[in-house]
Amino acid sequence: MRLTFLGGAREVGRSAMLVNDDLLVDFGVKTANPTLYPVSSPSPDAVVVSHGHLDHVGALPTLMDGFPPVYGTPPTRELSRRLGEDSLKLGTRRFQREDLLRLSQAWEDTGYEETFVPGITDYEVTLTDAGHIPGSASVLVEGGDQDGEADGGESVLYTGDINTTPTRLLDPTVSPPPADTVVVESTYFDHEHTDRGELERRFVDSVRETLYEGGDVIVPVFAIGRTQEILMVLEAHDVPCYVDGMGVDVLRTLRHHPEYVRDPDALKRAANHAREVKPSRRDDVLGQGRAIVTTSGMLSGGPAMKYIKDIYDHPGNKICLTGYQVEGTPGRTALDEGRAEIDGTVLPLSAQVEMHDFSAHADGPGLREYLREAVDAGAERVLAVHGDEHNTTALAEWARDELGVEAGAPHVGEEVQI
Ligand SMILES: [Zn+2]
pTM higher than 0.85 for the full model? Predict the structure, then answer.
């Protein structure tokens, strides 16, 4: 089996892995200016998708000329379509509306733990619950008769993005199924997350304190997963809140797929607890003693900056970021430098800026435990992807030294024979 990494190697973004020449796993974009695509555009016989985040599905519509069947879970289908429509609106795309339509037609819904043969290929593929966002999957690929040789014994587990810790929204990833090679994400390999209960307490206390003192709290969130998780946290602690932005639509979508969340009743309670903000009413929700949970998570779009424009100049107000802030984003600038662009001018933020990282990725201890299990289940080779240069190479080195397996951190464009 030959694996070619077309993106998402020694970087986070544009994840895409080609198995031999005929099966593609993920085809994402990297959000940058301009948007980056995988380094080549293959013509696979079938495509399997791990989860509905832009860095895993964003380039899928560009593959639709060849009309390959696309396999993924029902939530991933809906999120992919939603992200595609969003890209069309923003005009940052290399595809047309017809391509999105074709993608919908080509999609084959697949549940967890159901083994299937994708399209005209001769692989057996199984999706397993990855615990990262609703519908997220790790992809197990077995067999495949390359060049007619009888070498169909290999198997590869592509973890996609995994979370090994339970959250309010989701159960953690299932144990790795047996595979010869594990292609593993390494986003947070060098990091240890704060205990979830402690993280929640600090966040809730901080929000409450500001609201109690009459200030406003803006909680920037990613639309997919994070909005819903934060609403569930606030509901559980009975903190009043508004919700605004694309996360509201995603919440509706997820409520149609109760089997893909941990506690559908708790999600429903969170949806009822949060008051939705109509775009025409955004001026009316400040000073109401309720936190405002809104996209985008890195302040690079959505209504978040609209609110921040109204609250930035008073130290009694607060901005609670809830996830990793990529270098160069307005969120990162706000966090590191205490500044933001307001009406075209970069101004100092008097409002307090805090980080409460409700990460949906496994941390270092989580990844190590997961890989130990994978090796116990028979894995002989580990390839680290979906992380920066430091994390991918550190994970590979650890796997070589501590697990005694073959390990590497492929570069973008690299082929690995397994
Ligand atoms: Zn993801």
Answer: yes
